[in-house]
Design brief:
There is one protein chain. This protein has about 350 residues and is an alpha/beta fold. Helix content is about 40%, strand content about 10%. The strands form 2 sheets. It has a 4-stranded parallel β-sheet, sandwiched between helices. A 4-stranded parallel β-sheet has the order 6-5-7-8, with helices on both faces. Helix 5 (about 115-130) links the parallel strand 3 and strand 4. Helix 3 crosses helix 11 and helix 9 packs parallel to helix 10. The two termini are about 35 Å apart. About 45% of the residues are buried.
């Protein structure tokens, strides 16, 4: 099939101090998050001047993808839309329709399955098309890419660079730790088609970590979680990265390399939770700490996105490093399968 454009679909973030609380209210609407918790998270944004790096990182990545498309002779404009802040996805889809776009590919800035990582992007697509009404373009979401060779290569090289930032005498015994955004355990159990047994999100994260570690020649490593935001009584994926640093210290570790394999860019939850909280805690314990960069600024990331596009332009083969089935590619916000990645608590 032919496609007229691409929609870059992301989470969004505040771009000034006045945006912070309205943005957080958008993110948490209907979730019952206490106001004091929002105020606590708001301080993380104010630490960076009230500006999340995510929108600027997305704009740079989009520019790189547009350049790569041109270099490969693909005439495809890229539109930018967010779930929780400007530019909103609804406005992006309106612009696409006004520009005559009839059918477009959608790149979601998440490599994984699960409700928050995949199904919620389907909901964004469906909502934007419903708001647009008649004349809304058909929107085809690209597949999960956690096991794409270029995604894995970006992280593997970033881990090697991080390792070299440790003091030379600490490198040999440093522990490699992978992190991803924690989610409620109930949401992980519901991740994936029901007949597949759930836990698609945590299984994909574990597989991505395995692939990166293998390329780095590391056989023994850890997968942990970060950025929990829910009520204390609700079980989330554990252990948390800060708690795990305590565990490593108790076991005699003196250095740690952290790879945020669950994230495609260095947005606030990476910069605050890892570069501030985790790094500071490691320093208090006398542990050397280095964090690998995420891949969105790597030229190979743009090439990967274009490869995903080319799977739909003439049927280029899907390059994958795992046996996980291809998933996430859907039309107009439909889920991958009946009951796939239902939100926690859904009937």
């Amino acid at each position: 099939m032919s496609y007229d454009a691409m929609l870059w679909l992301s989470f969004g973030g505040p771009e000034g101090p006045q945006d912070v609380m309205p943005f957080l209210e958008n993110v948490t609407r209907g979730r019952g998050v206490p106001r004091e918790r929002l105020a606590e998270v708001a301080e993380h944004y104010h630490h960076f001047g009230g500006v999340s790096p995510i929108n600027e990182l997305n704009r740079k990545a989009i520019a790189a993808v547009e350049a790569e498309l041109r270099a490969q002779g693909v005439d495809m404009p890229v539109y930018f839309g967010n779930r929780n802040w400007t530019p909103y996805v609804e406005d992006a889809v309106r612009r696409m329709a006004a520009d005559g776009v009839g059918r477009a590919l959608v790149f979601p800035t998440s490599a994984y399955g699960g409700y928050s990582a995949c199904r919620q992007y389907d909901e964004d697509i469906a909502r934007a098309r419903e708001v647009m009404g008649d004349g809304a373009p058909d929107l085809v979401k690209l597949r999960h890419f956690f096991d794409h060779p270029l995604f894995v290569e970006c992280f593997a090289d970033a881990v090697r660079v991080a390792w070299m930032r440790l003091p030379e005498h600490e490198r040999g015994a440093a522990r490699l730790v992978f992190t991803a955004h924690s989610i409620p355990d109930s949401a992980d159990r519901a991740a994936g088609p029901p007949q597949d047994g759930g836990r698609l999100y945590s299984r994909q994260v574990a597989e991505a970590a395995r692939l990166v570690a293998r390329q780095c020649g590391v056989a023994d490593y850890d997968v942990v979680w970060q950025s929990r935001s829910g009520p204390a009584h609700v079980p989330w994926l554990e252990p948390d990265i800060v708690d795990h640093i305590d565990t490593l210290h108790g076991a005699g570790a003196t250095a740690v390399v952290v790879c945020p394999v669950g994230f495609v860019s260095d947005h606030l939850e990476v910069e605050w939770d890892l570069d501030n909280e985790a790094a500071e805690h490691a320093g208090e314990l006398g542990m050397a700490f280095a964090r690998a960069l995420t891949p969105s600024g790597d030229a190979r990331f743009a090439r990967m996105v274009v490869e995903l596009v080319r799977e739909h332009l003439g049927g280029a083969p899907a390059r994958k490093l795992s046996d996980f089935p291809r998933a996430g590619c859907t039309l107009n916000g439909a889920p991958c399968a009946a009951g796939c990645c239902e939100p926690a608590g859904a009937p």
